[in-house]
Amino acid sequence: MLRVLFLIPTQTYRAGLFLDAAQKLNLEAVVGSDQRQTLEAFTPGKSLALNFYNLEQAKQKIVAFCKTYPIDAIIPVDDDTAVLAATASQALSLPGNPPESVQIAREKHRLREQLARAGLPTPKFQLFSTADNPKDLSGLVDFPCVLKPVFLSASRGVIRANDSKEFVAAFKRITRLLNEPEIVKRGRTLAKKILVESYIPGDEFVLEGMLTHEKLKVLAIFDKPDPLEGPFFEETIYVTPSRFPQQVQATIIDCVDQAAKAIGLRHGPIHAEIRVNKRGSWLIELAARSIGGLCSRSLRFDGGISLEELTLRHALGMNIDSIQREKLASGVMMIPIPKAGILKKVRGIAEALAVPNIEDVRITIALEQKLVPWPEGNRYLGFIFARGETFEEVERAIRKSYHRLNFVIE
Length: 410
Hints:
four-stranded parallel sheet; alpha+beta; four-stranded antiparallel sheet; globular; D-amino Acid Aminotransferase, Chain A, domain 1; Rossmann fold; Dna Ligase, domain 1
């Protein structure tokens, strides 16, 4: 039986999806987590406690584990484990990306530097320290601009500023976020940096792909029908296949392909965010992992294969070239948090599920839990999933379903 090590942070939506895929493929799953499993002593070879923030120590522990329990693939479930997966895979001679390339993808300023060196479209960017005085910096940037932490994902801490006053306020707000103990622990020295980029207007897209020895297979291109113009950039609706012309989609694919080559990504899943305007396609983000949250449930491939199963098949050397996404349109909404407070009630779930073309409405924050909206927050209230014959049917169903939900927040 083939054995796969999943690197799973404690707070992730995706553990169950990957473990279900492993069971479907009859794989032995090993859970590498940042917390020791309660029954670890009674289930040898099934779990591994790792310090995700000590890369060398964690790598050595994985290598030592594999001497007794050989591993056939290592799968990072989220951003925080992608570099470790690449590092350990390299040490064990397993297929994967160069660790340095994955690190570049994770650090937004290094990604910008690499794209600029390769001559690819990139906005003007500057890197500042949280110790800097923002009033002294505001005269050095062009407006509008976007300020962002260099290592956080899901638009956390990303703020648009249109003038000096907004710049100073945004800089201070991001600094407060980066000083939170959880963020300092995750980012170390990266938590002391703020990237400032020129704002890129345009329509925004997501490309999900799989690299096989540098060759890109496009799994899906999602449109984001809601404009993301700031001041914050919380995600909402994704729908695929794209409604834009093939010519536009071709420029998106070329943009991602060139960016992956520029930073040296060569094997495994990639998740890219792109903006398109009259000047062409611009890479916003590129991650060496598949789409986050529960969004992968919006994707279905030949024979009912999930994105997680497809990722496992690829990691284990199975040929996925002929596997294509289903013909139906599909979409997902990441339900936004409207305000801070305590979640008391969720009304209208049955009514939201009754909307034609809606497949599921999943609330992922329990009652009595604290809600933190963007840009400080990093959790959605839940997810709405839809499928239909056309892009328009799916988008319409998601919006109608969402408007039937009522969240009571105190």
